[in-house]
Amino acid sequence: MKIDITSDLNIFYKKIRLLKFISHFKRNFIIKYKSKEYKDSFKRHPDKIDEILKILDILNTKKRKERYNIIYDYACDYLDNEFINNNWCNFKNNMCISNRNKPKKYQVGSCCTRNYTKMDCEYFDNTIKRCSIKCISCKLFVCNYLSKKGIKYRVNSVIYLKYFLSLRQKLIASVSFFKPKDVIINKWLKFYKLSIK
After folding, report:
1. How buried is residue 69: exposed, middle or buried, by Cβ count under 10 Å (0-12/13-18/19+)?
2. Are residues 174 and 162 in contact, defined by beta-carbon separation less than 8 angstroms?
3. Which one has a higher pLDDT value, 10 or 95?
């Protein structure tokens, strides 16, 4: 099924609910933009075509678990790119701007340090100073320092989560800190019927 994309992308976003319904009838989508057809979401494309192709990739995936895996990966990639491209944390010598502005006794090792125990998450890899898993809840987390600067990410800030998860699945995405991807996706699968409405 071909979808014509106009310059107003909000019209496309308003059609996502209808496209989700149509996708249940085993229809595959191709977009047409400025008289050119696009269907490969793994190449770089102009304007917002990449984002739309990723949405169509989700719609064209029929197996539920595979669909949630794609949603999860796209959402994590989006959040990673937001933090890296905007340099929100402004790391210098392995220390973020929030930590650098605190007295020494209140500094923590990373966002993966639990405030109440001062211990790192079990998935934090100290050798590479990064998390060894993709946890969507941790990626949505923004510290108080950045929040006060107006930098906030919510589930509805990420288009793939906003349009493809039910309210309960969104809650799971928001609060499942320090949990691996498969644990969160299995929880989403329990509540998949709610996401169709």
Report:
1. middle
2. no
3. 95
The structure tokens listed for 96 are: 């973020």
Is the model's pLDDT at 45 over the cut of 60?
Answer: no
For residue 103 the two structure tokens come to 């007295």
- Helix and strand element counts for the chain (H, E): 10, 5
Confidence at residue 22, expressed as pLDDT on a 0 to 100 scale: 80
Q: How far is CA 148 from the centre of its chain?
A: 22
Q: What residue type is assigned to position 30 of the chain?
A: I
CA dihedral 187, 191, 192, 193 (to 10 degrees): 170
Q: Which residues pair with 113 in a beta bridge?
A: 120
pLDDT digits (tens, 9 = 90+) for 80-99: 999 999 999 898 887 888 88
141-145: list long-range contacts, CB under 8 Å, 24+ apart.
141/111, 141/177, 142/88, 143/96, 143/98, 143/111, 144/98, 145/97, 145/98, 145/101
178 burial class (0-12, 13-18, 19+ CB within 10 angstroms)?
middle
Residue 179 has a pLDDT of 93
* pTM for the whole structure: 0.83
Query: Are 180 and 131 within 8 A, CB to CB?
Result: no
Going by their DSSP bridges, the two strands 124-125 and 130-131 should be labelled as antiparallel
Q: Domain locations in the chain?
A: 1-62
